[in-house]
Each structure stands twice: as structure tokens, then as C-alpha cells.
Amino acid sequence: MKSLVLCEKPSVARDIAKNLSASRNINGCLEGDRYVVTWALGHLVALQTPDKYREFKEINLDSLPVIPKIMKTEIIGKTFKQYKVIEKAINRKDIKEVIIATDAGREGEVLARHIIEKARSNKPIKRLWISSITDKSIKEGFKNLRDGKEYMGLYNSGLARASADWLVGINASKALTFKYNAALNCGRVQTPTLQMVAEREEKIKNFKSRDYYVYEAVVDGVKFITGNSDNNLDDASNFVNNYKNFRIENITSKCKNKKSSPKPLYNLTDIQYTASNLYKISPKQTLNIIQTLYEKYKILTYPRTDSRYLTSDMKGTIKDRLHAVSYGTYSSIVKNILSGNINAGRMINDKKVTEHHAIIPTEERPNYNIMSDMEIKIYDLITRRFLENLLADCRYEEIHREFKIKNKIFSNTAKKTLQLGYKIFEKESDDSIKEIKKLNIDSLVYVKKETSPPSYFTEGSLIYAMENPFDYVDSESEKKILRETNGIGTVATRADILEKLFTNDYLFSDREQIKTTNKAKQLLNLVPEKLKSPSLTATWEKDLDNIAKNKLSKEKFLSGVKKYTHEIISEIKSSEDKFKHDNMVGKKCDKCGKFMLEIDRKGTKILKCSNVSCKNIKIISKITNLRCKNCHKKMVLFGNGDSGTYRCSCGFSIKQKEVDREIKNNKKEKASFKDIKKYMNKDSLENNPLKDILKAIKIN
To answer: What is the dihedral of CA 7, 8, 11, 17, to 10 degrees?
Structure first.
């Protein structure tokens, strides 16, 4: 008898199969003597849409809400073939048990259980629960397989979440669409996120700048500043005139030894926020990069985590991870860490680790030759944070000097490093500490300052706000829940939610500043108040966590959700608000004759039919990766097919036909890796300098 291993993706299946000696490809599975390894392609089974239910064939505003007696599932059409491969494998007579090896989390559990249930299998279930897919981790995981019954709570939690989002999201979105004849959608995470952006915009719009004045004094060549300020220019001018020749009686000086500690290890939100600030890449791009580093290169642990700590049982793995990152600029630092007692105390906290620990390097050494520039940068950020947490605190001496003029305190603070510690990575220099002998004021001036409004959200800061939405909730108890459940959404879904808000024309990026469209502003006026607050998702996530811990039944939770669904649909039906498209153009749809809407989606301009039931979309222009020959900026493509034209802001343009011709010619001129390998294998070529050069090239 054999065990069937169900993986989430083909790449993971290949890695697991290799470690289980399952190398024979039979009927779409990798098979060995003891194991049969198969794989999904993400979700293969999903909750049925309302139109698939017999009782909901004809839906209109009056028939809402649609609440099925039993939530049914269906096989996703485009991956039907792969589902049938798995179904056949699960029901083989020689398969005694199913081992779930999908991502270790709520979504991974739902993905696998849906497939198993759809295949009508009653075979015993075991669970592989690992945070990295290195050979060592896979082998250890299979030695410690867990009983699938331990994860029924997690499955019920995932099923409850999906069902609740279906009930509220689909019903509210359809009600808004029918009511206002516009493609409107909402949800318990995306709508509060939209509300946060709108509130920030409103604060910026209503902000009134105010001038204020602070003071700077130079005493014996040392600059002192005051935190006290005046709001009136005459007061500032009078203060300077009255005290510019002031004789200081005494300057107090205090010296303290202080220390600073490194920031905790990265979770997904933290690295998305950092990458957005440093490299101007979206949270979705960051997640994709880390997923590649985890899945393809196997040099990072599981990325979809909200934890910043490790568990105590991981102490024994630290040394191997250090050896893996001991290269280049890190080699001497790692050597120093390994030469002493490894102190991993600050990053070990069992109580603060939920499903997965923080993102850290694995025991696999990276191969920079096959990694992209951005992959290297993201990997180095995580490696550096990991090493910082194994280094000592930075210790320094802080010297604080101050004196008083009237009611204003002037101060100067300088520091001197005593122990660099984790700040060995930073290019910091100590402040110059000059002894003050003369107590005369060399100069006294006021400096005009201006109060500034809050900053617009960037994609990185918005992801961070979704994890920390405390300013948007009034209740202290709800704030506490949001802290315990790590905000709205999950680390696995936040980047996708942002992408949907851009795709559905609710958000747009103006020089990296995120702003709401008029469609979004109108939607927020139409959506029920409860759906706009993070409070709903806070309550839900608390309940879902209790379901996962078997403290609350799925049925009781969904009973409350159904009641809430009736309430919001009733509110939408009774509303007297209106919706108006502000981006409608004179061009009519060539399919249904309705007017088209012009939309900008992150640099891609499209025309979309205003008729909700018509799916006609035409691309007007889009930013491409093709670089201008003159100024090397990205070019914009106008039109489609052979008639398409690439244009640059500098005035240069080129036709699609010419681009295709150049690409074709370049392919002919460049030898492929396959050609080079063939060339290198021709032993008859002697004393050939090119061959000698090629021999030195390692081709994987």
C-alpha cells in the first residue's frame, strides 16, 4: 500500500518527490515504492457562484439576499483536467492514506480539503507542516507527520471565512450593482481599506498650514536649538532682538550610557513596507519575489507570515543558517558570531508565533548568479535583519547640554559610540563633541517652520495601515482585537486586495501617492456604514481564530453572518442615493451601443463598456518595458497588432513591425545556451580561443 502526497504546486511536488524517491511519472503523478506525489494548480475547487444554484437562477434586487441552505462547491473549469488526475489518484485501491502537503496555513488547508471532499474520499488524512522546502526540512517533516484531525478546526475556520465573504461580498456587491446599474463591489476588507485612503485624503484636503518659529543659538561654535516655538513673527523677532547679546550663566551637562536594539525579524508586511520605501515596488511584487526565493531557490522560509519571532525549537538550526549566509561582506560578521556563544534570545518567543515564524534564511546557500537584482536586494534585507538580531546591542554615550533664556530651553545632544554591535551594517559617524569655554552667544536667530499635512498613502504604507488600523476604530476593545488578529485581511491576501482596488478603478497612483477615484468616493457614500469600518473584520477574525481553536462552531458564526447580510441588503434597498459615471466618453460600445468609460489602470488606459452585463474592453495605451533608444525611458504603446506604435515623451516613436523585426534579428545574431553547449562539445576544434573562454562558463 502507498501514501498519496497532495501538494499545492508542481514545483513543490517535484522537491518533495525527490526526497521520497518518487521519480516515475505515471498518469500525471510522481510515483515511488511508498509514495505517490501529485499536485494542484492553486485552488481547483471553489464555492459555487449564485447562478449555479437552481433556486437562484434569476437574481434581481428584490430577490436578494441569496442565502443557500448548504454552501456547495464546484470544480474550477480551467483546471478541471488536473482535478481529475488527483481524484483518480486519491481513489486508487493501493492508496491507503492522503498526506496534505499544501501550504501550511488556513488557505492551504481549505484548498486540499475541498479537493479531498469533492473526490468523496474517506481515507485517513495526515498533515505535513513545514515552513521551508529545503531537503532537510522536507525529510524532518515526513518523520513527524501529524494527524489530519488536528487541523479540522483550521479547515472549518477557512471554510467559515470563505462562506462569510461569499454571503456578504456577493450579496452586497450585487445589490449595489442592481440598484445603481454600475459595476460596484464591496467587501469586509477592501471597503475599510478604501475608507482609510479616503479619510487620509480628506485630512490632507482640509489641512490648513500654519507658520511657527523656532530658535537656534550658537555658543562658542556649538549649535543649540529649542523645542519651544512661537506662532507670531513679531514675537519671534522681538525675542531675537532682546536676547541676542544674552550672557549665559550656566550650561548644564548630563552624560548617559544608552543602548539601541535591532528591529524584530521581518514578517511579510514589514518587508513589503520596507521594499516599497527603498525600491518603489508594490507589495504584490515583493510577495512574488519572496515566494520565488522560498519556492524556487529555497533560500527563505515561508513568506506568508505575520510573526516577527521564532520558536524555541529552532535554536538548533541557527548555526546551519549562518553557514549558508557566510559569504561576501557577511563572512567576517558570521565568523564573529560563530566564534562565540550564539545568542538568539531576542528573536525567540513561542507566545508570539502563530501558524508560522518570521521570514529568515534557510540552510541553503544562495546562488547570486541565477538571481535577479531585485531578488538579491530583498534576500539581503532579510539576511541582514537576521544577522542584526544575532549581534549585540549598539551601546553609546549620550551627552545632553542645555541652557535657558527666559522660558525657552536650548539644547544640544551628541553621542559617542562605545559598542557598534548590530549597527556594523550602517554608515554612521559619531557626533563631534566640542568643549564650551565661552558662555557668550555668538548668534541667535529664529527659523520659520510650517506645519505639514499627513502624507498620502503609498502601497507600502497602506499595507502597513491594514495591519495596524487602530486609528480608524474608536472602541478600545475592538482595537485590542485588531492587535490580536493583526489588523484587517491577512498577510496572504492584503497585496491581492490592493491589486483588486486598482483593477476595479477605486484607487489610482499619482507619483506613488495613492488616491481614490470618483467611483470610490461615490461607492463609500452608498455602502452601509458597518462595511466601511475595520470593526467588522476585527470581530470576524476573532471568531475565525476561535473556530480554528475549536472554541466556536462554524454554524454559530455563519448564523450571525446571515443575519448581518439581511441587514445590509435591506439598508441598500431603502437608500435614495444616486450614482453617476464621471469618466464616460462620447464613444459607444461596438457590441451593445452603450457609452464607454475611460479608465487608467496603473499606466494602462482602457475603454470599458458602461453596461454592467457587457464585458467589452479595449486598450487605448499602456506603459511597456521597451526602452527608448534616445533617452532610455519606458515607452507607451498605442494601438494593437501590427498597427501599434511605441512613443516616448522625448518624441521618439517606432512601429510594432520594426520592433518585431529587431527582436527577430537579435535572436538570429545571439547564440543560445543550447548552441553554446553543442559548440563546446565539439572536440575536433583545437587551439580555439573562443572555446577556451566558453569552457570557463558554467551553464546550469
So the answer is: 0
Whether 302 is a known active-site residue: answer yes
pLDDT of residue 670: 54
**Start-end of CATH 3.40.50.140 domains in the chain:** 2-144
- Residue 673 pLDDT exceeds 70: no
Question: Where would I find the H helices in 389-436?
Answer: none
pTM, rounded to two decimals: 0.78
Out of 398-402, 463-467, 580-584, least confident range: 580-584
* Cβ atoms within 10 Å, residue 195: 22
What would the pLDDT profile of 423-441 be if each residue is shown by its tens digit? 998 877 788 888 888 888 9
Cα–Cα distance measured from residue 529 to residue 189, given in angstroms and rounded to the nearest whole number: 13
Q: Are 49 and 162 in contact (CB under 8 A)?
A: no
C-alpha cell read off for 289: 519575489
Q: What is the mean pLDDT of residues 239-252?
A: 92
Pick the CATH number of 211-261+394-450 from 3.40.50.2000, 2.60.120.10, 3.40.50.12780, 2.70.20.10: 2.70.20.10
Given the residues 302, 379, 456, 464, select the one marked as catalytic: 302
Q: Which amino acid is at 342?
A: I
DSSP 8-state assignment for residue 421 = G
Spatial contact of 102 and 8, defined as CB atoms under 8 Å apart: yes
Q: What are phi and psi of 412, to 5 degrees?
A: -140, 130
Report which of 49, 62, 20 is spatially closest to residue 37, judged by C-alpha positions. Answer: 20
State yes or no: cis peptide before 65, omega within 30 of 0.
yes
Reduce the secondary structure of 28-80 to three states and give it as a string: CEEECCCEEEEECCCCCEEECCHHHCHHHCCCCHHHCCCCCCCCCEEECHHHH
Q: How many residues does the chain have?
A: 700
Do residues 289 and 378 touch, judged by C-beta distance below 8 A? yes
Task: List 4's β-bridge partners, or say none.
Answer: 36, 98
Q: Say which residue the cell 476585527 belongs to.
A: 538
CB 446 within 8 A of CB 463: no
